[in-house]
Specification:
Strand content of chain C: under 5%
Largest sheet of chain C: none
Shape of chain B: elongated
Structural class of chain B: mainly alpha
Radius of gyration of chain B: 17 Å
Order of helices and strands of chain B: HHH
Largest interface: A-C, 65 and 56 residues
Order of helices and strands of chain C: HHH
Oligomer: heterotrimer
Structural class of chain C: mainly alpha
Number of strands of chain C: 0
Radius of gyration of chain C: 20 Å
Number of strands of chain B: 0
Shape of chain C: elongated
Number of helices of chain B: 3
Number of helices of chain C: 3
Largest sheet of chain B: none
Chains: A mainly alpha (about 250), B mainly alpha (about 90), C mainly alpha (about 110)
Helix content of chain B: over 70%
Strand content of chain B: under 5%
């Protein structure tokens, strides 16, 4: 369909849709006037129930852990889809010169300032990512946020050094293993709740005192599992895209 | 509705419109980073620090790397196609 | 004035939809889709907000104080990270389409006619 036809269709249906959308949004309660009972109840009782000071993470990994299982597998499926699409692309591409792709490849024209900065960013990112993942139950953080920060560590290796170092540091099988281990660990913790507590994803570990690192039962464990999976997933996606460009880009003169 | 929230909302709306109206894909990526930052500040004013952390991490690190790598790959494919045509 | 978050969300949805419809480059389509996704975050967080309430972190505030709704924050938090990988999947599809058809123009995808 040509662009003009699409725009004509949008001009036809768009205003009607906009009116219906605004009328529908007017049906919501006024901003700031929240009456939902579930949320208010959770705000009040959650610190007693689970000894976690971050209510959002406790919801994510314990009270609504089943929803997070679904979300996690969406992530897994998307990463698998990216890998399938781009590896098939690589397999049918016959221009790749395998002997030249094993040479070390410097990140294109990165200045020394960028590379030096990335060098000292590496331990900073890894430490911050690990901290965010483990302290999910206490402060804002958790597996999802910390996983992406952790994944930025090897990315800084890519910028600071050579691409081959990144592949040696995080070869594909290791990334796949990390991602699958994270997804499997999350499911196994849920099954542990089934075995030891008779409810899928019941919190069967001791709850401890709120505010300490080892508290809130299985929430830090779930956080670590999800962090592992998000790190592996993001690094796999990045490596799939960059691998393509960098290997084929060997043929061009530097 | 505090003035800080209203200002953050206006900045988000302007940045979102700018993302759609920017011509090239590469420039759009940069404006998308700014849009992510504006969204993060908005989430902060809505008393949602977890969500703000998640948004800044994804829109600062996750998304731009994916988009830039995809754009690079497309350009490499274009160059290959020209080389094929010349042969 | 209290309708402003929802009005902003509706505007973002419509402008993102316009970006999807009117783009001549598949990568721009995918990026405009990101704007549409952000409008849903605005609606969700706007629903859960309580006037004068604090963030749902109870580490250092007196028990029993007013807090915002945490359930919608859980939804938006996981959604933000997952949508990044879904966008990566869409971009992988765009790269495949570009390899197959040689152009990024959505008007030139002719798979149904071949």
């Amino acid at each position: 369909m040509s662009r003009r036809a699409r725009l004509a269709l949008f001009a036809l249906g768009g205003p009607g849709f906009a009116v219906v959308l605004v009328i529908g949004l007017h049906g919501l309660p006024a901003f700031g006037d929240y009456h939902g009972i579930y949320g208010l109840l959770l705000d009040r009782i959650e610190p007693h129930l689970r000894h976690a000071t971050d209510i959002v993470t406790a919801l994510n990994f314990d009270i609504r852990a089943f929803d997070t299982l679904g979300e996690e597998f969406i992530l897994f499926a998307s990463v698998a889809g990216v890998a399938v699409l781009l590896r098939r692309l690589r397999a049918i591409d016959e221009h790749v010169d395998r002997s030249r792709s094993s040479q070390a490849h410097r990140f294109a024209q990165a200045s020394s300032a960028v590379r030096m900065t990335s060098l000292w960013l590496i331990p900073l990112l890894v430490a911050l990512g690990g901290y965010t993942v483990i302290h999910g139950a206490l402060t804002p953080g958790g597996g999802f946020q910390g996983g992406v920060i952790l994944a930025a560590g090897p990315l800084a290796v890519l910028i600071a050094g050579r691409y081959l170092i990144l592949k040696r540091l995080a070869p594909e099988w290791m990334l796949e293993a990390a991602e699958s281990a994270g997804a499997a660990a999350y499911t196994l913790i849920g099954l542990g709740g089934l075995i030891f507590g008779s409810i899928f994803f019941e919190n069967f570990l001791p709850l401890g005192t709120p505010g300490q690192l080892l508290s809130a039962g299985m929430i830090p464990l779930n956080s670590v599992a999800v962090g592992l999976e998000v790190t592996g997933g993001f690094l796999l996606v990045w490596t799939e895209f960059l691998d393509q460009a960098l290997i084929i880009g060997q043929a061009e003169p530097e | 509705m505090s003035p800080l929230q209203a200002t953050a909302l206006v900045v988000v709306v302007v940045a979102g419109t700018a993302v759609v109206l920017t011509p090239e894909a590469l420039r759009q990526t940069m404006v998308l980073g700014i849009f992510g930052l504006a969204l993060t500040i908005l989430f902060f004013t809505f008393q949602a620090p977890d969500v703000a952390l998640s948004e800044i991490v994804v829109s600062g690190v996750g998304m731009p790397v994916i988009i830039l790598a995809a754009l690079r790959k497309i350009r490499v494919q274009d160059r290959e196609r020209e080389q094929d045509r010349e042969e | 004035m209290s309708f402003l978050p929802y009005a902003a969300a509706a505007w973002l949805f419509l402008i993102g939809l316009y970006g999807v419809v009117s783009s001549t480059n598949l990568v721009r389509t995918v990026l405009s889709l990101t704007i549409v996704q952000s409008s849903t975050y605005l609606v969700l967080l706007g629903i859960g907000y309580r006037a004068g309430a604090k963030a749902p972190i109870v580490a250092d505030i007196p028990p029993g104080s007013r807090l915002v709704d945490p359930v919608v924050q859980v939804l938006v938090l996981t959604d933000v990270v997952i949508e990044a990988t879904v966008t990566a999947l869409l971009l992988a599809l765009v790269v495949q389409a570009h390899k197959r058809f040689g152009s990024l123009d959505p008007a030139e995808l002719r798979i149904l006619r071949d």
